[in-house]
Q: What sequence folds into this?
């Protein structure tokens, strides 16, 4: 990428978001681990009064990892990758640099406000859209700032053709803007009622079935355009860069990109199968979920084939291991999701622990692994230092991989067990199990899941420590590494 | 075509938007109006019930309890009649949930009582041995925010024509009165007294006597309304 005159990139915003990624990762995953233990051992609900109950912590966990950790990771990589693939430095535009800094500042304040309001119980109840209207407005402001950053940098680019990663960042920006705006259409009650009640409260523009439809059109595609699209942007940049390999197929990347954009939005209906939304939408959701395997696997296979002939790098470079495993988990969860969307399977799987199981093999295996690999790749370039400890990266990899396996296998068993017990009839045509039977049977699986979660969290702390030591105590590099990220072997 | 697009960010963004927006438009337009029609007999929530609904949302009950009965025998046997779209016409937001860590609550008002809820929210294991639900004792001391519920009712009446102060079924009586804040507050307190009289927690009874409504009373009013 750096042929010709060398461009000096500005990483100040990327570094700030890297810090936020690690901070919110720690908060979000710690809360998640507490939740997992609460389900196995309910007495843990009473550690902090009403603020420590599952009720208050659950939205904090989902928002913390989705909008704290993952979005930070997306922004960190954008402010790093964007400059490089467009061959232009933020130093060349003080305006865009300041937009980036303001973006970070407002974003950071928003997440802190989110933590406080969610703990206090201010929530709209709509999943992944829990934040109340004043915070929603703040979100829109910094999302627009990010848009200015993306399109501003594109506007002053030197590289005429947009690299694949940029396509995905653009798609993320546009789709999330649309989804977020429409799903959060709400009327603040304080103003309409002429000053009664809480100023923070609002009421949804949509009611009942319509509200559900809009919510899952949003909820499912928040997954698509936060947990998938920008993560693909990352792997399209970092895997070739780290491995020194070209992307296997340009045509496949085009097919996968446009296919994903077209099909993904339809699949939201699979959250509403057997609900009261019209049958044709449920069927569309189901069918399109199956079709979605094509573009999803298209990207993943493109990534795996990029490593063709270079599989030995799996042994020598732990970051390649992270990214290859991320692609593999992406394949796993994008076949698992469509299976759950088949109506007869959904009848068993819906409302059970198989769903969080599916979410977590996707996010822990794909999203978090990819973001950590990206930040590890960026660290030597941003800080001009060697990664502090290779053995720690290796240990972290195996610890977390084991953790994910514990997590999803226990949740698969728990979900299918519960789904089957709910519908079990005896020979006289009566239900065999009362509801509580189907809760008590899950205890061992909840325990295994919590242990898996704890192991994953420990791995994340190792990542945080390794990043911190890299930034402060890693061996100083005399020049920027081209491909493989340098790591200290004895530590 | 794609080569051309890749070099023109503006058109690229436009095509991305159209591709992404397409599905939403097709899905939303045909049935949006039809789905929001209430079934016969469905009424808006009273102010106290709405207050309880806010408590339900504040403590994310919907994170573990669904309010959607699917059309399977195993569900109708366990929870009652399967859900109809129009029953949710006044639910803003909808509270179907996505996970049943605990049982469905769509028709919990048909088979649980004020007394049962009081015991259950104070100490779930006392009525359901083996339950992993936390106790919600702070509902017995926190005072519910009736005023915000009133603000919401006024808002939905003004903006969405939700039938408060209206004779819905044509029997000559107003089905769900709203009125002024003072009237609404007095009516909520009256309903709260009726519920508190069926409870045994003395602090709750005393609070209602003083004219305050603890969260638990509002929540039970809401639970009892789910039928």
A:
């Amino acid at each position: 990428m750096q042929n010709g005159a060398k461009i000096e990139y500005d990483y100040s915003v990327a570094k700030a978001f890297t810090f936020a990624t690690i901070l919110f990762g720690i908060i979000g995953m710690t809360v998640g681990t507490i939740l997992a233990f609460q389900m196995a051992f309910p007495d843990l609900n009473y550690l902090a009064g009403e603020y420590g109950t599952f009720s208050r912590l659950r939205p904090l966990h989902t928002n913390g990892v989705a909008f704290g950790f993952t979005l930070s990771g997306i922004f960190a990589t954008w402010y790093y990758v964007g400059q490089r693939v467009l061959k232009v430095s933020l130093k060349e535009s003080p305006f865009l640099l300041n937009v980036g800094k303001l973006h970070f500042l407002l974003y950071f304040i928003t997440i802190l406000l989110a933590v406080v309001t969610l703990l206090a119980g201010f929530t709209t109840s709509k999943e992944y859209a829990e934040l109340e209207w004043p915070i929603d407005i703040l979100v829109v402001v910094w999302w627009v700032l990010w848009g200015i950053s993306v399109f501003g940098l594109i506007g002053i680019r030197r590289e005429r053709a947009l690299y694949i990663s940029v396509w995905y960042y653009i798609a993320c920006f546009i789709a999330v803007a649309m989804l977020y705006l429409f799903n959060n259409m709400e009327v603040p009650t304080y103003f309409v009622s002429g000053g009664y009640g809480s100023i923070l409260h609002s009421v949804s523009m949509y009611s009942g079935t319509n509200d559900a439809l809009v919510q899952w059109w949003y909820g499912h595609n928040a997954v698509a355009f936060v947990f998938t699209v920008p993560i693909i942007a990352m792997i399209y940049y970092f895997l070739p860069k780290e491995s020194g390999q070209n992307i296997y197929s340009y045509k496949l990347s085009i097919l996968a990109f446009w296919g994903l954009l077209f099909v993904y939005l339809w699949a939201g209906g699979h959250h509403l199968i057997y609900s009261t939304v019209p049958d044709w939408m449920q069927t569309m959701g189901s069918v399109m979920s199956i079709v979605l395997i094509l573009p999803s696997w298209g990207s993943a296979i493109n990534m795996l084939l990029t490593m063709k002939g270079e599989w030995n790098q799996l042994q020598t470079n732990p970051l390649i291991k992270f990214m290859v495993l991320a692609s593999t988990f992406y394949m796993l969860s994008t076949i698992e999701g469509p299976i759950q969307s088949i109506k007869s399977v959904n009848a068993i799987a819906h409302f059970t622990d198989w769903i969080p199981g599916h979410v977590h093999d996707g996010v822990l295996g794909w999203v978090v692994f990819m973001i950590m690999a990206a930040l590890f790749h960026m660290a030597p370039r941003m800080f001009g230092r060697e990664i502090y400890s290779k053995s720690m990266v290796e240990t972290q990899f195996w610890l977390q991989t084991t953790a994910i396996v514990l997590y999803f296998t226990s949740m698969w068993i728990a979900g299918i067990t519960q789904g089957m017990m709910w519908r079990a009839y005896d020979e006289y045509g009566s239900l065999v199990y009362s509801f509580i039977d189907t809760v008590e049977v899950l205890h061992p699986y909840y325990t295994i899941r919590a242990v898996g979660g704890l192991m994953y969290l420990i791995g994340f702390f190792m990542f945080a420590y390794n990043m911190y030591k890299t930034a402060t105590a890693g061996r100083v590099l005399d020049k920027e590494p081209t491909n493989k990220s340098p790591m200290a072997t004895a530590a | 075509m794609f080569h051309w697009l890749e070099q023109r960010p503006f058109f690229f963004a436009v095509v991305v938007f159209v591709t992404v927006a397409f599905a939403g438009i097709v899905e939303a337009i045909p049935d949006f109006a039809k789905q929001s029609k209430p079934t016969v007999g469905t009424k808006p929530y009273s102010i106290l019930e709405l207050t309880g609904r806010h408590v339900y949302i504040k403590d994310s009950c919907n994170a573990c309890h669904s309010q959607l009965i699917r059309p399977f025998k195993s569900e109708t046997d366990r929870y009652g009649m399967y859900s109809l779209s129009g029953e949710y016409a006044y639910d803003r937001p909808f509270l179907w949930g996505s996970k049943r860590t605990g049982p469905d609550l769509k028709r919990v008002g048909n088979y649980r009582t004020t007394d049962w809820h009081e015991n259950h929210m104070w100490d779930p294991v006392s009525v359901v041995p083996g339950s992993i639900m936390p106790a919600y004792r702070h509902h017995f001391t926190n005072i519910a925010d009736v005023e915000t519920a009133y603000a919401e009712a006024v808002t939905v009446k003004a903006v969405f024509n939700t039938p408060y102060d209206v004779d819905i079924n044509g029997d000559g009586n107003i089905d769900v009165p709203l009125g002024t804040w003072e009237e609404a507050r007095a009516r909520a307190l009256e309903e709260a007294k009726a519920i508190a009289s069926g409870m045994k927690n003395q602090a709750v009874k005393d609070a209602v006597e003083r004219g305050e409504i603890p969260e638990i009373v509002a929540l039970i009013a809401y639970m009892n309304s789910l039928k």
Chain B touches chain A through 85 residues (CB under 8 Å).
